[in-house]
Amino acid sequence: MLNILGKASSINVRKVLWACVELRLPFEREDWGSGFRSTAEPGFLALNPNAMVPVIQDGDFVLWESNTIIRYLASQYGGDALYPAAPKLRARVNQWMDWQATDLNRSWSYAFMALARQSAAHRDAAATEASCQAWAHCMGILEQRLSQTGAYVAGEAFSLADIPVGLSVNRWFLTPFDKPRLPAVAAYYDRLAEREGYRQHGRNGTV
């Protein structure tokens, strides 16, 4: 039985939970992280020295880093439709997963902490505005891509890339600030909501 360590509200844990639904993969989950068991405990650090969730235990195999975890799960448990073996198709999926983890995540980090989390350490109005503008720029890139495919980020079919990107889109819509109109992103948001995994772990009121 796959064991997932991490609280269900974490955006990175939710990637793994959503992937498990897509793969019809049974799992057990333990609450770790802020508000639950501390990831600074020696037992957790032995699994992930970065003290971050999620971590999976698949038998005696331990793995951390959320995008790596969902790639592994798709490769290990028959997820070819989500993560195709053909090099060019797989590279396209990886491209958008990596873009989400780098450019997109960096753009919204400050604005999200300031506006959604109301963090006391993120009260710089200029930094918030700059982050909102960077975020809108990245979402414009996503709008352009979705306008091209008419469906999902890697192409016509839902793929592993839509899990991290979809969770970021949910965060975009639930963070309160004035946003540009992005009709292709809005249609994508609704399209993802047709998937059970997204309803449970993505578009579920959690940012």
Automatic annotation (TrEMBL):
Q: Which GO MF terms are attached to this record?
A: glutathione transferase activity
Q: Which UniProt keywords are present, listed alphabetically?
A: Transferase
Q: What is this protein called?
A: Glutathione S-transferase
Q: Is Transcription regulation one of the keywords UniProt gives this record?
A: no
Q: Which residues form the GST N-terminal domain?
A: 1-81
Name all GST C-terminal domain ranges.
86-207
What EC numbers are recorded for this enzyme? 2.5.1.18
Q: Which CDD domains match?
A: GST_N_2
- Top EC class, one word: transferase
Give the PROSITE patterns listed for this entry.
GST_CTER (PS50405), GST_NTER (PS50404)
Does the record carry rRNA-binding as a key word? no
Which Pfam families does its entry note?
GST_C, GST_N_2
